[in-house]
What we know:
Three copies of one chain form a homotrimer. Chain A is built from 17 helices and 34 strands. Chain A is an alpha/beta fold. Chains A, B, C: GO terms for molecular function: beta-galactosidase activity; metal ion binding.
Amino acid sequence: MKTRKILFGTAYYPEYMSCDRMDEDIRMMKAAGMNTVRIAESTWSTLEPRENVFDFTYIDEVLEKTQEAGINVIVGTPTYAVPPWLVRKDPEIMVETKKGRARYGHRQLFDLLNPTFRCRAENVIRHLVSYTAGYAHVIGFQIDNETKHYGNTGKYMQEAFRRYLREKFVTTERLNEAFGLAYWSNSIADWDDFPDIRGCVNGGLMAEFEKFRRTVAADYLAWQARIVSEYKRDDQFITHNLDFQWKKFGADIAQDGYSYGVQPDLNHYEAAKCLTIAGTDIYHPTQDELTGAETAFCGDIIRSLKDDNYLVLECQAQAFKYWTPYPGQLRLHAYSHLASGAQGIMYWNWHSIHSGYETYWKGLLSHDLGTNPTYEEACRIGQEWKKLGTALCKMKKNNRVVLVVDNHSLSALEWFPIDKDLTYNDVVRWMYDSLYEMNIECDVVDINALEPDRYDMIITPALYCITEEMLKKLDTFVKSGGVLVSSFKSFVADEYVRVYPDTQPHLLQECFGMSCNQYTEPGRTKLTGRQVRYIAELLNPDKNAGTERLAMYEHKYWGAYAGITRHEYGRGCAYYIGCYTDKDVLKEVYKKAAADAKISVPLFSWPVIMRSGVISSKAEGADRTLHYILHYSEEEREAPCPFTAARDILNGREYRSGDNIRLRDWDVLILEEL
Amino acid sequence: MKTRKILFGTAYYPEYMSCDRMDEDIRMMKAAGMNTVRIAESTWSTLEPRENVFDFTYIDEVLEKTQEAGINVIVGTPTYAVPPWLVRKDPEIMVETKKGRARYGHRQLFDLLNPTFRCRAENVIRHLVSYTAGYAHVIGFQIDNETKHYGNTGKYMQEAFRRYLREKFVTTERLNEAFGLAYWSNSIADWDDFPDIRGCVNGGLMAEFEKFRRTVAADYLAWQARIVSEYKRDDQFITHNLDFQWKKFGADIAQDGYSYGVQPDLNHYEAAKCLTIAGTDIYHPTQDELTGAETAFCGDIIRSLKDDNYLVLECQAQAFKYWTPYPGQLRLHAYSHLASGAQGIMYWNWHSIHSGYETYWKGLLSHDLGTNPTYEEACRIGQEWKKLGTALCKMKKNNRVVLVVDNHSLSALEWFPIDKDLTYNDVVRWMYDSLYEMNIECDVVDINALEPDRYDMIITPALYCITEEMLKKLDTFVKSGGVLVSSFKSFVADEYVRVYPDTQPHLLQECFGMSCNQYTEPGRTKLTGRQVRYIAELLNPDKNAGTERLAMYEHKYWGAYAGITRHEYGRGCAYYIGCYTDKDVLKEVYKKAAADAKISVPLFSWPVIMRSGVISSKAEGADRTLHYILHYSEEEREAPCPFTAARDILNGREYRSGDNIRLRDWDVLILEEL
Amino acid sequence: MKTRKILFGTAYYPEYMSCDRMDEDIRMMKAAGMNTVRIAESTWSTLEPRENVFDFTYIDEVLEKTQEAGINVIVGTPTYAVPPWLVRKDPEIMVETKKGRARYGHRQLFDLLNPTFRCRAENVIRHLVSYTAGYAHVIGFQIDNETKHYGNTGKYMQEAFRRYLREKFVTTERLNEAFGLAYWSNSIADWDDFPDIRGCVNGGLMAEFEKFRRTVAADYLAWQARIVSEYKRDDQFITHNLDFQWKKFGADIAQDGYSYGVQPDLNHYEAAKCLTIAGTDIYHPTQDELTGAETAFCGDIIRSLKDDNYLVLECQAQAFKYWTPYPGQLRLHAYSHLASGAQGIMYWNWHSIHSGYETYWKGLLSHDLGTNPTYEEACRIGQEWKKLGTALCKMKKNNRVVLVVDNHSLSALEWFPIDKDLTYNDVVRWMYDSLYEMNIECDVVDINALEPDRYDMIITPALYCITEEMLKKLDTFVKSGGVLVSSFKSFVADEYVRVYPDTQPHLLQECFGMSCNQYTEPGRTKLTGRQVRYIAELLNPDKNAGTERLAMYEHKYWGAYAGITRHEYGRGCAYYIGCYTDKDVLKEVYKKAAADAKISVPLFSWPVIMRSGVISSKAEGADRTLHYILHYSEEEREAPCPFTAARDILNGREYRSGDNIRLRDWDVLILEEL
């Protein structure tokens, strides 16, 4: 993206409205200072009501009216919701999962590998993209939407998986060996004996299948990107709306939930390769539960994909009843996204919809389509961003800490759960959120993309599966002066989810100065007075290596073992946290680790959040350092100015070291260092 | 029904007994003062053990012995449980639902539209009805039993639904428009593209499908009624055993549960059209949980269907372990039914059954088939009713309050739940039970049967879907002096479950003097000091209209909005209750509303319940006004006599204004005004 | 088994290891004092990688190395996990259940009656047994593993069941009568009308089906035993690994759970007939939840099968995270098994497995395959057992109390649950555990194997179904001086689960001096001040029979009824406990009953457990009486020596009457009476 403007806009579906009010919509968007709309994804049956019969009336009208209004357009390929005629043409388009063939109705339930689907999808994409690419105000394309593998266990998927295994392992002996198939008599001597994967209970093979399916989904996106690339101009971007593991709450039939963790059904790093700019949607609790953690976590993941700014293609307006924003919260949301490095935000969506499944996923406008407090707050945001112009755009970060994520470990731990109430993503969020609350910023990077040299501190939450190659890199990282902080269940198994058959942590006992071959449900075990939960690995610090026992378990029998260790190794230092406990305990470890890594930690912490970056400014001849101060609380409070001198670019007020910054409820400041 | 006797009897299935004890049964029934038995429904395989081979031995014997004993008989068509030979003949008789084809075994699991079923059902009905109609003591027929649509998604049902849609909408464009099918690409351009309904996630279309299926079930009953009418005498009635939404508790495999709310799978109003007298079964918690609310609520619904007396074709004897009645409770049950307008009660059932699914749905007799405390209490009831003769029969009500129910709104709110823990029926019961506990009697009427002019006060619990025609009637009702009390989620959507795209409450902002375009999960919000739960609509009273804010929310941000409003409009008054909270708050509103409607409310309230009516008595030349005083408590208490003078017709005791009426545990009085 | 050694060993699967470390394994086993391994069950795909192509490499190697090391071998037939080629050959091998055809992957999911399976199973059994039977150190064979019917509703099972019914009942009339099929129109007039059993909701017929399926599973084991018998030497035993109803906890996908109650899917008594020695696996909570109850209960069941010593073919090492043993617990487990009459124990398993479903069902060795505290404790056990030589072997019991179990009643009560939170096995465990905690030892015997004359006291927990023949035996038992203690829901129904249609308890009112025809959910009911839960049968003691009311209900209305009765009848005495309440109340009843039966009860109770037996010792010329003192607590305590004089054969210490025995945490003593 070449623009130095912040994108501010909304998803827009006039197709879904029963009344024609496009002029009024555009007027209200302009009044809100919006400069972009995203259209067309999910409207296949409107665009192509019968096979190869196209009706682009809505496209025409939106393009024309936005052009007049000076509003840019992102065109989405409409493939993520297939039209009824396509399913009638080939019922096998519906994805087959462990539960059987999906029935038509819901979105995102087709077989990515079905040839009929691919053929008709290609056709509609070519028509739509060629039709729209010529418009100057079409600034980019979104391919598909929230793509995942949809639990596909269909024949195409299973055949492709068998081909993949055969190419990878060549002989059945190697396959048997890799996954331990002799167990319960699952080994094969003939590739044709490979059974229907749907009954498989081998966690390693199933994790491999998950990994393979993630690749299939990423390949599908790359295929769409190639088609779009045949038509798009150089200045038009290709993006995708990457989403996260959804945490459900509320009624089963409703969609209540929020962006919680690493996506299990698509590898973001793999998928992002075909994009020119990363895009995402981020939803999060609001009202009393608004913490900013999801906005930061998801933003850090998406920014790290290309180490660049990204688009928030969907963010919440009013959404569910739980999230009707308090006054000030919508504005706080918006600045929180920018603070993570977003290049702009688009609401989902403009109008609340009057029919269909998402009737109560409310947009900026309520069902009455008039003004309302949320829309009015959006207007305030729009006006501020118009005024601030390019001052906030393209903020870059240069984080010294990285938190490593891995959806292969996620899959493995679904088969070998740490506890019924503790998932992989719970551990990730426990370690991430503790950093976030301390105002230690980090990148969040897929293990496959990790370059240890770029960082001073590496954090591994439950990095269960890891290759020996990467283990050696981590060893070298610490030896060379890095600080490694690892949680329980890290470094346990290899890439086939085979537990390493020697002393744990595999290859890193010397690094951590510790080994472990027992673990337990904590029961009444405590650590520094706090209840240990879910797991306690019984750590044996190496007495000869001078390993520091940061905390011993408090328990009649487990008291003989350490729960947290610290070991200086080479020029660096390695921490191992053998159990799950309060975030406060973890934060104490982080404090020490940050000191080891010479990373300074602000004096204030959540609910006062600081997120920083640098804007390189050729015009002004110098980089500008910005610090977003985000206040996630309804209480007023003060925080000390952490800088020699800074100016809040939102209202021009200046602060010096020693000044107290007064924060109203749900407040936002953007301090520029002077 | 011409009789002026109260029916008192039981369901009777000698077919289910392994021993022949019909003489003893009849003797014990007579000893209990019983005058009626209901037979034969569910005994198809006994009546017709092989196709077209009939064996009416049990019918013969029961008819003969009841005739001798002077006991009347209601004959049930046996269709609600199909015989094995019929399923062998055509396996497609078993209903197909979202979960697949039902398997044979349970009752009420056949496809109402299957032609083989219809053909064989017609045959057995014709045989049985023609065989029995001639007996003088056969007083009527029950068609089928607790009929519903059984979740039918079979081919006949789907084809019929498509035909119905096509006839209704003619073009696919209108269909798309009505339900917003463009959403997620569900629109069709060709009727043949209409997909299998089983995958549909469009709440509006699915609510339409539910409505259609309710009509199919009602049509099936009408079809049976037509067949029976070919044989029955004029003095023989046709009834049906209408049941309610069942509230499950206890073990999954057991049938523990009770009659809770509006029936989702049959529209009572539609179904009752073919009946000459309404019939029902009502089950309810007992022991410490006995409140009388279900007896009143279900009775009010059934009485309102034909604005006439009705039969309780099944009521509980000992039933489940939870319901073994305390001394006095069985008698209290019996009088409670009469107090709602029942023309009689029949126990389900006579003997506890020794095998099969309902072994522990215990009858009047325990498995030992001897006497027991429950049977003995039935004897007391029977003796009292013999003595009271016709004095209690055909009591009519002339209620001034109506509570409006709508199973279309029920369906819609299953797709768009207010909260995972608050169903449509929860709101209905919240509003009904509050009236009941205050001793404000009401009719409970289907929205399609509502005649506003008949009432002074209309109550709408979550009347989510409503036509503009009815909205105008409600507006007129208030303007003309009526009192309207509406809860949250009323007047939101049209008959296709499309949210009205303008200011809410649609067409009634002027009437309520209020509008609303935001709502929220209440969180910590309170109202008059009570916790608000599930939903808080943020009401904007119209300042210029003089709307009264009966209660403002208590909350830092939502405190700007009203939670309950009152507005004088024309000659009437409209109340809007925007949130769910304690019944006490609702009762305060009712108290004001009743005053507005000039309805007087007794000084006492639950557990002392008063239910009243009038018996027109040509013989005595004057109407008699009866007030049942029903005491739902194990504590003794006193209540002031609310009448100038009255006599308890059960024991002849007289009370004057100012007297205290002494109530024993689970006591019953029937005061006749003097 | 001829040996006078205690078997001490482990399951051993070198097939599952990715590295060859058999020499090291054998070395470590020897160091632990092990003398036996169990091999080969579940390794079919390794033994026969293609149909009829055998590869016995692992067998050869294990047999050779164990022979050298002087370790005995139990060879398991490998049939309980079928190889992929077999499912490819005939997909119908996978069991069909109510949920459809099982998918390949998990063990124990095949159709026991499938002819292809039987043919290939026979082939591999013949190959393996003939191959190994000649080795001197192969001491016996285990047939299959944890065999059950696997919920089989496939065509072979259903056809066999129909044949069985037809042979049993001859006419459909008798079938209809036995199960009350007229109910809900389920009766048939033609055997061909018998419907698919999968939809059946007749609890009696379904319990019959369960019983039939248990017989099919037992017949399958007998078939394997016959094949093995063709090859085995006389000194080689045939055993089977009988398991128990599993109580699940923890994560759904994990196998966390433990041996809880009577097995629903196999009748142990029936299955054990073909075995020469009974075998079992017993798993139980550990750490703070270790009580010893499961070890005692399951051991008492298995010992009672053949009234003989038995093998614990699997017992837990480290197992799940919940069960990592505290120091001393593994040793306590081991002696607990011997105290119940086990002839030896084998750990499941030797190595923790590095791949596959049971990766975290940890063995003696952790995944690092080195030493660890659990292995080290096993070494201590092994050394002690080596030293004690034959002194502990073949201990016999001669219990005077029997607790009667019945998996037909279990099935019936699944259809007619006492309460959603109280299963048949909960009642069994309530009654067993109370005995156990009081140190009253008992046999636990299947109703079909009960010989009342052998005992002085019979206990029947929820013996719901019972034949009249057995009822008469119980009557005679009491008359002749026996003590009968029966719980609620005993003696209710006949062998077809028909409730007896006369006064309950059927045929035993005279014996108990009590009758009952009402029962209730207890609500607030108490008994001797304790809350009654789940059920209260309202007992009517016979006033003329002098029946003692041991406890009346405490309740406004139910206070008129007794909850527990005692009745002297003939020379004996019968107790009836009509409700579920605290174990303390039950123990008071047991105390009286034991006094009636002249059984003395020790002064100490759980957590100090005493389990006793006699070792007949021809050599020494006299029997030796041993008392295991097992201390299930982490607290130290003292217990009085209950014997005139005794010596702890573990450490030689002697105690006299009046001495206090000092017990350390998780302590074990074996007192030999002097």
